[in-house]
Design goal:
The chain is α/β, with parallel strands linked by helices. It has a six-stranded parallel β-sheet with strand order 3-2-1-4-5-6. Helix 4 links the parallel strand 5 and strand 6. The radius of gyration is 20 Å and the shape is globular.
Length: 166
Amino acid sequence: MRVTVVGIGGLGHLAIPLAAAMGAVVTAVSGSPSKEAEAKSLGATNFVLSKDAEAHYGTQEVVLNCASGGKGFDEMVKMCMALLEPDGSFCLVGLPVADIKIPVLDLVFNQKKVLGSIVGGRRDMNELLQFCVDKGKSPLAHKTEVPLASVKLLQLCDLGGMKIQG
């Protein structure tokens, strides 16, 4: 299976290694060339700058949009739909701030599908967690030491123990 992940941020950091672990040939698409090494380290076979995506139109079975936002979102949707081969699936997990425009003629004449998901049910999540255990996959995490004084200060602020007067 050929899967394209658009948006190499939080959701994309999960989507790339999971799709690769499922046996997909993963193409990562980003507007930022600085994301290439990271995308490939996560399991992407290919990296494409969004400005160069036209060379890959009609080649993907699944396009998973992990990017969210407003400005330029309709252009991104148009690119995602163009990347799909006939009968391909475009799945939105990154959400726009408003309704989106779908190229209807491309959708209908090429029998493409548009799907959306925000979260699966308990069974889906349990299945995914078991898959991650079986494949040794885990999310990226950055650990840092936080001084105890900072923690105490934050606790005071959260509990309303500090009053700012001015």
